[in-house]
Design a protein that fits this description.
Rossmann fold; about 425 residues; three-stranded antiparallel beta sheet; about 15% strand; 12 helices; flat
Length: about 425
């Protein structure tokens, strides 16, 4: 027999919030660069994220947007020391559990000490010994954040038509945008029936039945669309969060949006991520959200070297490096493995070796597009020299317009300089 259980209505004020709404509230926290941390000057590539921090971030985001009822706020102000036992704390924990249930985060409870029995979880995801439960965002959450960022960036551009990477060449295919040509072995048999029949009539006259021969076959041409291998070089040196401005978080969001754009609109393309600071390293795209600013110096040459090694393995028609930086090259990896550093001015040795690496990219057929988040006179000259050598493009932009310029450049491939 089927039973229906009735319970007292508790009146959840956050019942209408979906998991996607919660992710949008937590976006700045999940994609943060460490700019707001009191320990931001320490390099931490793999920061520890606890459920307590996530709980606090969601509470602050909802409070800033006026989403918490006044009654719950009054209770919090009157009894702040017992917040963990309050109704508001329970409601926030339920929202975090909803993120876990829908697959946007995974919650890892701390392991019990040897000889200590693990206790059943009570009180939500913040419970556990010393309240040190940790969380990880999933690929599903990264996909959503990338799509949301891409939608926001493209929405500010007005109407944009997605396509593929068009070139000046013509090839046979299904979409008929070009002129008709005689069929050659290996062409896609996108037959132009009218032109084929007219060719047979012109050769033999109008007699029935028509005698078609191999030379009469005519096919329609379409625009040749190439695949592209891209390495996104992201500067994570300390200058990206100095001078009172966070430049690293917008760069991470743009990288996430570019990943979504390539996966959804350019499935034949590939994207790899390289971080450069005192040295350089390749990271999986799935780890992008966790990356924070690193050591102090900028080893642009080492980043270009690693990008070239990655692109040499890609069998694509087009290969390019997209470099996002805000500072001058100030470090160099020597032949013996030691790192030469000089943060004062444009060091002639560092600059010359970096430009030699740019010239090597050009010889290997690799295009470099530079997005500079600074406008110092010396840096502008350096970037213009890079652009001149590799025949790429230079964009002198801000963290607020970086995404618009980068995505439009990737989609349209227009040769222009924005100063």
């Amino acid at each position: 027999m089927k039973f229906i259980k009735y319970s007292k209505f508790s009146g959840d004020p956050f019942e209408g919030l979906s998991a996607e709404d919660l992710l949008q509230l937590l976006q700045d926290f999940l994609l943060g660069s460490g700019f707001d941390s009191q320990y931001y000057n320490f390099y931490e590539m793999d920061p520890e994220r606890t459920m307590e921090q996530l709980h606090q971030a969601l509470l602050e985001a909802m409070s800033d947007r006026g989403m918490i009822p006044q009654g719950l706020l009054d209770q919090l102000l009157k009894n702040a020391e017992n917040y963990q036992d309050s109704k508001l704390s329970d409601l926030i924990n339920k929202l975090l559990e909803r993120l876990s249930e829908e697959g946007y985060i995974t919650i890892e409870q701390p392991r019990a000490e040897p000889g200590q029995l693990s206790q059943p979880r009570e009180g939500g995801p913040m419970s556990g010994p010393e309240g040190k439960a940790k969380f990880e965002i999933t690929d599903k959450a990264l996909d959503f954040l990338g799509y949301k960022t891409l939608k926001d960036l493209l929405g500010s551009l007005g109407k944009s038509s997605f396509g593929r990477h068009d070139t000046r060449e013509l090839a046979t295919g299904v979409e008929s945008h070009g002129a008709t040509k005689r069929y050659e072995f290996g062409d896609t048999l996108n037959l132009d029936v009218n032109a084929t029949l007219l060719s047979a009539i012109a050769r033999r006259g109008f007699e029935m039945p028509l005698d078609l021969e191999y030379q009469d076959l005519q096919v329609r041409q379409c625009e040749y669309q190439s695949s592209c291998a891209t390495v996104l070089m992201l500067d994570c040196s300390h200058s990206m969060i100095l001078y009172g401005e966070d430049r690293f978080t917008p760069a991470k969001k743009v990288a996430l949006a570019l990943t979504t754009l390539i996966r959804t609109q350019y499935p034949g393309d590939s994207l790899h991520m390289v971080l450069f600071h005192d040295s350089a390293e390749e990271i999986p795209l799935a780890e992008l959200a966790r990356v924070q600013v690193g050591p102090y110096y900028t080893n642009t040459r080492e980043g270009l070297r690693m990008a070239q090694r990655i692109l040499s393995r890609q069998k694509k028609d087009m290969r390019q490096i997209v470099m996002i930086t805000d500072g001058k090259p100030s470090a160099l990896t020597l032949e013996d493995g030691r790192i030469y550093k000089n943060a004062f001015g444009l060091d002639p040795l560092v600059v010359s070796e970096t430009l030699h690496e740019v010239a090597r990219c050009r010889r290997n057929g690799i295009l470099i597009n530079t997005f500079m988040l600074a406008s110092d006179y010396g840096l502008v000259n350096f970037v213009q020299k890079v652009t001149e050598i590799c025949r790429g493009k230079a964009y002198f932009t801000t963290p607020y317009t970086l995404g618009q310029y980068l995505l439009m450049d990737y989609m349209q491939k227009k040769v222009k300089h924005i100063h």
